[in-house]
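Thread: Modeling a multi-component assembly for a lab meeting

Hi all, long-time lurker, first post. My supervisor asked me to bring a structural picture of a complex we are working on to next week's group meeting, and I have zero experience with this. I have the sequence lines for every component (288 residues in total). Could someone generate the structure of the whole assembly? Inputs are pasted exactly as I received them:
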Amino acid sequence: MNKDLMTLKPIGYVREGKIVLNPKWAKGLKGIEGFSHILALFWMDRAHKPDMLIQPKSRMKFPAIGFLATRTAHRPNPIGFTVLKLLKHKGNTLWVKGLDVWDGTPVLDVKPYTKREEAKSYRIPPWVKKLDKLETDPLRRYGS
Amino acid sequence: MNKDLMTLKPIGYVREGKIVLNPKWAKGLKGIEGFSHILALFWMDRAHKPDMLIQPKSRMKFPAIGFLATRTAHRPNPIGFTVLKLLKHKGNTLWVKGLDVWDGTPVLDVKPYTKREEAKSYRIPPWVKKLDKLETDPLRRYGS
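Re: Modeling a multi-component assembly
Sure thing. I ran the full set together rather than chain by chain. Output:
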């Protein structure tokens, strides 16, 4: 594979909160129901070019931070990443909990969630905790 | 952004176990040192086309599983994903622990690790645990 030609193709799309793969990849999901959680990668097709620095919630007095230290969708490669609880798998469809992307969003990859993803005693900065207290949508909280 | 044209550009490369971004993105890392762990996305440029079903370790008697239920690099979109402990950040360079990719691998994205990635009481299938017992490289264990 040529590293100068990095082109993606969707393996499926988000449909009504479910992950619906192209039927040709259905067989590649065999056994995924053995895992309680999955990682899903999306192409955030509504994203725009990144702003280098971001002021978390404009009305607050946090120092501006770099976009790579945030989870904004507006990045050089707008790949969204989410950990999802897998509720059900049938054919080319995955029923999941916690999906927070637009309907029709292209799906790039699905991977099983394993021990590798579990960071023991990790640390997040105070501004994340403060912002979470203001966030009313639990799906949009990062560190609470 | 056009969803029919999903083209990636590296924001940096893996150099001697470190993540070295293009200097133009250095400012975008501001504040990342507030997080103890990061997520990194890579373009697995040595990957080949996926095999639909995979026999975990050929000599063993596990049922074949779909490639999407494994962490093989050989996927329609060969995007590697890793959780890394962040040891140090200076300029455009991130010193990390636990990086298990080839030197020169293109880096697609860096994101902070947050509570969202922590799946409480997750479940992995028996074959993952059995394989891990045979794996001598701790970086390659999934569920032990």
